Amino acid sequence: MDDRNLHYKEAVDRIHAPQELVERTLQRVHAENRAAQPARKVIPLFAGRRAAPLLAAAACLVLLLGAGLFWALSPAQELPFGTLDVAQLPELPMAVRGDSDFTVEDFTAQTGVDPASLLPGYVLEAAHAQQGASAQGQLLSLLEASYAGDAQLLTLQLSDFETVLYGAMAQLEPVQLGGTAVRFARDAASGALYAAWSDGDLCWVVQQDGSDTDAFVQTVRGMLNP
Asked: Could you give the CA distance from residue 11 to residue 169 in angstroms, rounded to a whole number?
């Protein structure tokens, strides 16, 4: 290598960029590389072990809500069942018995209620209608029917006046079922279940043997919403 080329190489080797310029250049290169890379997946704040307590709490909350929903939807939940002593109630207030030929068909024609179609799933075993008058001379009509179904016996008392039984039920606290005020009771002696409500000019009293309140409430719901 001649002297001129040697001097040129030595001069080039002595050229160095300032350290500050080098650092700024590196920072810019790194920034451009990060901008060109796809966005990184964000790791949740409560990841790993810290998520376990939160997941357990959430599971407990779901269980509590589910239990509360089941409790709230139970048919007889929070329905007040009063207490009756049916054996101590007096006779029906029919001071004067009316037409002895008054039939179930006559009652149906008068009220528009056919006892044979009131309870789907139940068999109408017997029905009896009577007509009379109160001490004030008011004409009174009464239908009594008995049904069998699902190993349960059910009795219906339907009238266009307040019977003594309906009057006793009317003293109890009502509950709203499908927009109708219904009163529930349990006989103190036999444990039979009762429900009473009014629909226009008619008073309804349903009695069921047994202690299955859920099934009884469902039956009453079916009668209110056929």
From this structure: 117
